[in-house]
Amino acid sequence: MTLTMGKALNAALRDAMREDESVVMFGEDVGALGGVFRVTDGLAAEFGEDRCFDTPLAEAGIVGLAVGMAMNGFRPVVEMQFDAFAYPAFEQIASHVAKMRNRTRGAVGLPMVIRVPYAGGIGGVEHHSDSSEAYYAHTPGLKVVTPATVADAYSLLREAVADPDPVVFMEAKKLYWAKDEVSLPVTTEPFGTAVVRRPGSDATLVAYGPAVPVALEAAAAAEADGRSLEVVDLRTLVPFDDATVASSVRKTGRCVVVAEATGFASVSAEIAARVQERCFHSLWAPVLRVTGWDVPYPPPVLEKYHLPGVDRVLDTVDRLQFDDAPDPRFLTGAAG
Amino acid sequence: MTTQAEHHMPTAAAPAEAGLLPSPEPVRFLDDDGAPAPGDAHGRYERPPSALLKRAYDAMVLGRRFDAQATALTKQGRLAVYPSSRGQEACEIGAVLALRETDWLFPTYRDTMALAARGIDPVEALTLLRGSWHCGYDPVATRTAPQCTPLATHAPHAVGVAYAARRRGEDAVALVLIGDGGTSEGDFHEALNFAAVFHAPVVFLVQNNGFAISVPLSRQTAAPSLAHKGVGYGVRSERVDGNDPLAVLAVLTDAVEWARAGGGPVLVEAHTYRVEPHTNADDDARYRDHDEVEAWKRRDPLARLEAHLRARGELTDDDVAAAREAAEAYAADVRARLGEEPTGDPADLFAHVFAEPTPQLREQATWLAEELSHDAAEGAR
Q: Looking at domain A2-181, which CATH architecture does it have?
């Protein structure tokens, strides 16, 4: 059947709640309203207000409550509503969610999921479009997952709920309405496995979340120009699949990382470093990145200039020294 | 149909906050010398049973000796840091004795004495402060959360644990310890609000010991009392003389049983004093008068309890000697077991990040193991 990612996420939550009574869902507006993106639509009606409930408007309280419930037998799935709204909960996430297993030398694990609708492209006003994945990926003890396909949305969320460790589940807002043919329930590759979404031989595009459709579109456009681009979808940022990424880059010899978040000190920087460490002798050109600019997320009228689009990806691919010419941006220092 | 505003309008006969307001003065049973004080204003608290007070006495003697031992070990470099709770014995022990074994305690870094009173192995209790790991005991087995270093962030966890217990049909209560400084943190307020909205069986015990490191209460809040902070959230609130073991035990036992019976959360402010510096690294002469410290030392909770029990003939010289002997033996055991340098297994670095290490963690563990075997080979040469 044809399904949107939003519906697939909703189905994953419903199926997880049907299978395991300890799964509870809470956050702001997740009950009667079904979440501002309707991801929890109908869950309060089907499972009752004990299983899916609205909380006071307080993100640290929501995550803190989830920590306590996870310590005492439940599997909470909490929604942060919008990326930047999660920042008040960051102390809870960094100091407690990520560290409880470690602090207690393995005695207390926290099986919980923090759902973060993230990234832009939907015309949101400020504080509604941040790509905050680097904060979580940089924090040891958190798994960080971000699906790019409808099937992955279902399968990875099911795996997140079942995981014995806390998972920050990052849902690209602009993909909520992306459709695909999927018959549920579906099981895709597990956490820590990147997938080659499109095979190619001239260069590898590494992408995740909202950047995956952009990379695929760029690869399709490049094909028309006779250039064969391989697209790797990371799916999980932590754990990271070095093997699949390195094997693709060793095959193609060139790599561009595509991500929506600002580039400086980002997940894309981490990927570029890891590829360079593992594939140096296979590389014909430096690993390049296409990211959002290093600016606060812009207002809606300007976001089209900020978000990495197909043209910027293709321009960057052209700089991969296919003609032995180094990328001029990095010779002049203009790109910092 | 009433409007929202009308709905919230209290009637003159029963103002909404009437049942929530703390007593006009802190509840106390004993005067500063341990003689009976006039009863509390509400007359709602009964003198705790003598057997419980005797248990409290023994635990307070032990707690104080443990605290002194830990302070001494810090001076010898055996502990990385130790925040003393000397003078707060009534609160530390009262919190634990008000709980059943199945109840949960959420302590801060200053509440090591409470961990000892809970029966946690003192070496495991000191693991954090010794620097050999973060939390040395099993929080689920002991029903005691890891000692929390960030302020008040453990309060929402207590709400979660208590709410989960109620959802599972258990009658467990969670008691969370917070300092006066912690009441300024957002998590304290979110926890009170959540506890009230979810009617969770949580008792918040604020040990108002006068200072958040160097900052006095007057710089922490302009509220009439810290107990009043509960009222705005719909949380029943009370204040108690935190250096009066009878009052602390009476009020906390009442609060815990109120929460257990489904009454909802309770906030208790205990007026006490930190007679020692914040930690061994602190110079308290910079921010408070010697006279003030001495005045509070004269309201010593242990001396007051001892005077009270002796006056009633419920504590003999032999009882006192036995309590001190047990405390000495306890301290000697702590001393002996903490005498050696702590060691840590480097493999532990990677073992408890996730249930299963990621490939990256396995690589790093291998790398470190190789580094160590290389070092060992160098050392053997």
A: 3-Layer(aba) Sandwich (3.40)
